[in-house]
Structures are given as C-alpha cells and as structure tokens.
Amino acid sequence: MVTKTKTSTNTQSSTKNKTQSITVAEISQRIEHHLKFTLDEQINVDQKPAYWRATSLALNDIIVEKLQNTKARQQQSEVKSVNYLSLEYLMGRLLSNNLHNLGLYTNTEKALKTMGFELADLCEQGADLALGNGGLGRLAACFLDSLATLDYSAMGYGVHYQHGLFKQSFADGQQIETPDMWREFGSPWEICRPESSQTIPLYGHIEEVAQANGTIKSVWHAGKTLKGVPWDVPIVGYNSDTVNALRLWECRADNAFDWDTFNHGDYLQAHQQQVAAETVSKVLYPNDEHEAGKELRFVQQYFFCACSVQDIIARFENQYGALAEQSHWQTFCEKVAIQLNDTHPTIAILELMRTLIDNHNVDWDNAWAICQKVFAYTNHTLLPEALEKWSVALFQRVLPRHLSILYRINEAFLNDDVNALWPNNDDMRARLSLIEEGHEPKVRMAHLCVVTAHRVNGVAQIHSDLVKQDLFPEFDQLWPTKLTNVTNGITPRRWLKACNPLLANLLDSTINADWAKDLNRLSELKHLADNADFQQQFMAIKQQNKIALTKEIKKLTGITVSPDAIFDVQIKRLHEYKRQHLNLLHIISLYRQLLANPELDMQPRVFIFGAKAAPGYKLAKEIIYATNKVAEKINNDIRIQDKLKVVFLPNYRVSLAEKIIPAADVSEQISTAGKEASGTGNMKLALNGAVTIGTLDGANIEIAEEVGDDNIFIFGLTVDEVKALDAQDYNSYQYYQNNAEIRACLDWLDTDYFTPGNPGELSSIKESFLAGGDPYKVLADFQSYADAQLALDKAYRNPSQWAKMAILNTALMGKFNSDRSIEDYVQNIWHLTVSK
C-alpha cells in the first residue's frame, strides 16, 4: 500500500475550527429542536425535505453565531475590508459545502444515521442558489469562500433574484425556459436585514441652485424611488473562525400599494408600483433585445450598485462615525476597497461620486481622489459585445445626475490626461472618450472603469497581455502600472473535497497536510504517478464516479451509457466562442466514420454536454437543438454498436457539475485562441483527474505549463495565428472546399437525416460557418482538433499512461487555487490584513 495514516496537521485534528468539537449528540439535539419547534414536525416523520431543512437550520444556528463573532472581531481590529460587487453568484447548494468547511460532515452524518437518513441524500434536497449564468458567478462564489477561509474581512454584494437565470428543459430537442423557483418557500440559509434597507432615487430632473457663496449646486429631484431590502447569506470559511456574508438586494416599492385605489375596487392597479419594483430583481439578465428590456437591465444594475454603495458608507459610519469630518474620508480610503467584477457594477463609481458631492458636501477633487483610491476593476472579456455600452438617452432619462457627473469626469480626463500625452489629437480623444459618438451616442462603461480604478486586472496571463495589447493599449500607455494580472482559481473545498469524497479520502490518507487549505501539497502525488498500486486506487475511484454518473444520466435523459467508455465532457455557457459546435462537428465526423466502418478501432466514447443558451441568442439555441437531434440519431443507431453516445444534460447548474466533474475523463476547453479570458471549468476538471483537450487560450496555457506537454492535448491556432488569419480576410469556404470530411459533415446538416421529414432544419449551423464567415475559426481548427482527438484515443487505450496523466493533472493544480488568487489581490490590489 502507498497510503499512510493522517497526521495531526490534517483538517480533522486542527484546533482552529472550534465547531469541530460539537458532538454527534449535540447535532442530533439541534436537528430535533428545529423539527419540533421551527417546523412543527414529529421526529419520526419520514420526510427528507423536513429533515434537510431542520439540518440546515441547525447548522445555520452555528454559522450565524460565528458570523456575529466574526463581525465583532473585525470591527475591534479595524481591518480594511473588501466589498466585492458582482451581478452574478453561482452558489449552488450549501449544506454539504458548509458542513465540510465547519468540519462537521462526519458527525452530522452519524447523527442523521441514527434518525434513519443518509446525509448524502439530504444534501440532494433543496434548490441551487443559482444566481448567475456561468464562470463569472462561480468565480465570485469561489472568491468569497477563499476570503473567509483566509480570514479577510469581506462583504459580497449582489441581487436577490426571485428566479435567477432560468430552469432549462428540452422539448423535441429545443431549449425550453421556465422560472427557477429557488426560494419558493424560503431558504434556510438567508437572513433578512430590514434595518439595512436603502431607498434609491431614479428618473426625475436636475435643478441648478445658487449657493450663498456664489457657487452652483446641482440638486437631483427624483421622479421615483425604489426600496432595497438586503438578504444575507453567510459565507463559511474552511477550517477557519471566519464567516463573512453575501448581501443580496431585493427590490420593492417604496409603498406597498395604493390603499385608496384598492378601496375603489381597482385591485390590480393598486399593486402596480409593487409589481414594477419587483420586476427589477425578478431575473438575472432580462432580455434586452427591446427598449423595455434595456431599461430594466440598466435600472437593475443601478439599483444593485446604489444599494451597495449606500450600504458600504452606512457600515463605515456605523464603525468609524459620521463622514461629516473631512479627515474621515481619508480613513474611508484606508479601510474600504471596492472590487468591480466585470462592467456590470460600473455605475457604482458614479453613485459614489454623487453621494460624496450631493449628500456629504465633498468637493469634486477630493471626491474623485476617493473614488480612484477605493475602486479596482476586473476585466473578464475581450469580446466587444460584452463590454457594456449604454445609450446617453437612457442615462439622461433614468440617471440625469449621474450623466452630468460622467460628462465632467470625461471632460477632465480628455483635457488633462489624454491631451497631456497626445496634445490636440482629436482621433485619440474620440477613441478614449467615455462617450462613443455616432448615430446613437453611448457611454463606454469599461472606459469609465479603467479611467477610475487604481488597478485593472485580467484573469489569466494571456488575457491580461491581450487587454494591454489589443483592448486598452492607449490606457496602458497612459498608466503603465495600472493594468495587471490575477489568474483565476477555484476553491478545492467544493470542487474536490465536497463533490468528490472518494478522491478526497484518498488524498487525505496519502498527503501529510491539509491539502484543501494548501493545494500545493498535492504535488506530493507526483512521485506516485507511476506507482501501479496508486494508479489502481486513483482510477478505481474514477470508475466509481463514472458509474454514479451513468445512473444520473439515465434518470435525467433515459439514455444508457457505459462507464467503460471515455467520458468526454464540455460543460459551460453556450456561446459560439466556446465552440460547442466544433465538438458537434467532430461527433458527426466520428459517426460518419463508424457508419462507413462499424469495426473502426476506437475506444467507445460518451460525449457529455451541459449548457444554457441565453433566451435571445438564436444561434446558441440552434446549436443545442442540433446537438440533441444528432444525439437522438446516434444513440438509437444499433449499427455503431454503442461505440458513440451523445448526452446533453438539461438544466446545467452547480449541483449537476458536482456530479459530472468527478466522473470526467476528458475536459473540452476548445475556445478560439484569444477569446476565453481564463475559464475555471478547465481547473475544476483537471483537479479531479480529467485530461484537457484544448487550445492555447485563457488559463489553458498556464495549465499546460504546470502539467507539461505530455499530460494535455493542445491543438489549433494560436492567438497570433488567429490575428494573421483575420488580417488575410479569413475565408471559411476554402476549408469547406478543401477538406472532404468538413464538406460531407456540413452538407449532411442540409438533409433530413437527423430531422426526418424536415430537411434543412439544421442548416443554420452550416450557414454560420460559411455565409456567416465562421467568426470563431471552427473550420480552420477542425483538422487539428480531429488529430488531437485521435492522439487522445490512443493514449486512453494505454491504461497506465492515462492513469499517470490523470494523476499528474490532479497533482499539479496547486496554482489554480482561489486562495492563491485572493492572496494576489490582497498583495497587489486591496492591501488587506487578517483580522485577529
């Protein structure tokens, strides 16, 4: 045997997390208390939801006490705090993760066994807190976990969406969207904080009022107000005494309803204000293809930012006193950091300026200096369509005061900063202006972030380099030290310890350290990568996880798959640049080859997809439809002898990812080089022993550097080669004409083979490649991708070689820990200290 007994340095014997001393009997008593007095349930009731809720409430009692102690400790030590503003948080389910972080999983498991329940079953109860869309929201959740784990003072801010994104199902292969009722009957994890509610003004007009000293003061007369009610979700640090909070804002009308109108019998009209207000926090990313949707989305962002800024100030004043004294603003800069997670929270800059000037009588220069000191900005994309721009007309209508402040910031920036480096250069002024002129003038939100923030970071080294070279080269010339890099990371607590307990137990018994708090300790596995006994243990766990996933696939889709096949996984938001349609094109090619030669020498393969398409994203929905129709044909074709299966799992979310990732053999990270900022799914899959097939894009580059060329399958164009193709006026038709396999596969989509009786239903995919110009170079990368897949197939059929590759991927993921990311932010951007 290669495993060894855990030493006293391991998690279970650590003394820092005092909750680990809570006994099985105490946990049982707490659960029974909530069953009887909170839920009014008899203890012998055989009902999983009741026991899940009682267990969650019992745990939350412990968590809230730790939250209160954390607040007191942080206030007493007067440490600097970071306020993380993000429109997305993909929190997932919290019971298992919180139990692991508190060190109470084993004792709670024992307590529930005495009651006749399996904790693993109860952890499946309850809805995901799915308050996000993809990697951006999951990254934010990982960062909050790490901030608490590392004992930093932090508050996350977001929106208390009633429905989050949407719940996805399929009808004849088409995506169907329905509301996600994540808290239909409340959530045991959240705490309403009505005492911290905020009143938020919008619309109206500005009045210029002469002051006694001869100056002019702008007074905003709002035409409407909204009420922001905060709900706090405690964030539990792992093996730590710290519990921070995620504060989510729910929008309500300032008045519940019109009593007079109600009494006159117009019941619907009486509730109009409340209905309109509730719409603001109804869903994540309301469809903005129409003007009403654009305005709702804009109001949602402002509401979230304004509530958060006012709350940050209120919390500061509660600790340090009213900000009437000018000296207190210096303290504010020393004690408060605000991180903007992408451009969605940009209006927070203008809101803080407005609040300082209008409400606290801070002069312009000092207000601007304060904003520059407290704000930092994370850029997550190079895609022009994702860099938000709002029409000046919309700004003028909804936020007239903020627009006037924006104009003044822009004027000072162009006259002072731009003109100093490029005097009398109108072209450069137009390029860098916060206002994009044209038929419909627009506000460039990313420009405002860069001009204001004292640090701007990308999220992988290649991405940060491209931010400097391609996205903001002039800003980099203006401020050579402002643009920097912080490579993303993931929390190993959720993405290995909680979601893959079999592997976590093996690591616990192999590594003489708490690897979940120091992920670099996984490197100790390197010397075991060639050990036949350890390889057998590692791959046996992978096989058990695959068997568990086959059952989940059968339950969700009715499709039977073999755990002996390669499980090839692509799970991420559906977008052309992520190139799910490259994967699909290769699947069609494999199917063609199998039909031509059913005895084709290939390892059986199951391609597993999980993705949601934005409701207004037509081509993304058509890619889902095409994948499902191709899957339907392949999965029912007995001629290919089950050598190929395709599964598109519905309603991809955190809790589903937790089941897929431990079972994955192959991680598909196939975005067009230069388009994926970082990725975090690539890290999660590799950490759990999946081998990556990917392009030199985002964090794939850094993963390749860590694991070595022999343990990853890299293919396709580089960033420079993509640029060169664009410069040569890329012609996708050439690939179609010169590659017989590409031509045959695309032409097949024009027939009714996959859609009997409906020829051409899948032609939109072909059209996107040809008439659409193939903007993401799918056809250019197809042959390289197919060749890499052949090499992958060959490697998998050498069990010892594959096991070594899988082990090394787990062993060498230490860099991609969100704890390391947070320490990078702390050292280079936020300058926090730990609360004692």
Number of strands: 25
SSE class = alpha/beta
Give the strand content.
5-15%
| Residue-averaged pLDDT | 93
Under CATH at level 1, the class of the largest domain stands as Alpha Beta
How large is the count of helical segments?
A: 34
Report the CATH superfamily of the largest domain. Answer: Glycogen Phosphorylase B
Q: Sum up the overall morphology in one term.
A: globular
Describe, in plain words, how this protein is organized in 3D:
The chain is α/β, with parallel strands linked by helices. It folds into two domains: 78-93 and 128-488 and 823-830, Rossmann fold, CATH 3.40.50; 499-508 and 515-816, 3-Layer(aba) Sandwich (Rossmann fold), CATH 3.40.50. Helix content is 48%, strand content 15%. The chain contains 34 helices and 25 strands. Strands 1, 4, 7, 8, 11, 12, 13, 14, 18 and 19 form a ten-stranded mixed beta sheet that branches. It has a six-stranded parallel beta sheet with strand order 22-21-20-23-24-25, sandwiched between helices. Strand 23, helix 26 and strand 24 (691-694) form a beta-alpha-beta unit. The radius of gyration is 27 Å and the shape is globular. It starts with 23 loop residues before the first helix and ends in a 6-residue tail after the last helix. The model is unreliable at 1-15 (pLDDT under 50). This is Alpha-1,4 glucan phosphorylase. The modification N6-(pyridoxal phosphate)lysine is found at residue 684. One of its GO terms (cellular component) is cytoplasm.
